[in-house]
Amino acid sequence: MNLAAIFFGLRRGWRVLSVGATVPKYRIFVLDDQGHILLPDVIEATDDDWAKSIARSFAHGHDVELWFGDKKIATIKQDEYSSGEKAE
User: Fold this and answer.
1) Do residues 55 and 29 touch, judged by C-beta distance below 8 A?
2) Positive or negative, the Cα torsion across 65, 42, 57, 61?
3) 8, 50, 53, 83: which is deepest, by most CB within 10 A?
4) Model-level pTM?
5) Residue 40 burial (10 A CB sphere; 0-12, 13-18, 19+)
6) What would the 3-class secondary structure string for 31-48 be?
7) What CA–CA distances, in Å, run from 53 to 4, 14, 19, 65?
8) How far is CA 26 from CA 8, 44, 59, 67, in A?
9) pLDDT class of 18 with cuts at 50, 70, 90
10) How far is the C-alpha of 69 from the C-alpha of 61, rounded, in Å?
């Protein structure tokens, strides 16, 4: 990644970690209308709040669950995404 991309990313809210630091991995599950998993994904985020904001970007027309290990962090409802409300 070049310096211009890093600078642009920082302006968009990216976080810089020290060299060698590990970033926690969260699991995202995009759900269908019956609550079945349509799309599983893994994201990296430094904390729960950042992971929730990333998970919200997956909530276009579907509910999304965010997990860290065996702990459910949030459920983002599709109607919450469109109205700007926060996840649980």
Assistant:
1) no
2) negative
3) 50
4) 0.68
5) exposed
6) ECCCCCEEEEEEEECCCH
7) 24, 12, 24, 12
8) 24, 6, 16, 6
9) low
10) 25
Q: How many angstroms separate the CA atoms of 83 and 57, rounded?
A: 13
Would you list the domain boundaries of the chain? 18-83
2 pLDDT exceeds 80? Answer: no
3-state secondary structure at position 57: coil
Sequence letter at residue 78: Q
| Residue-level pLDDT at 5 | 42
Round to whole Å and give the CA distance between 24 and 4.
Answer: 25
Q: What is the residue type of 7?
A: F
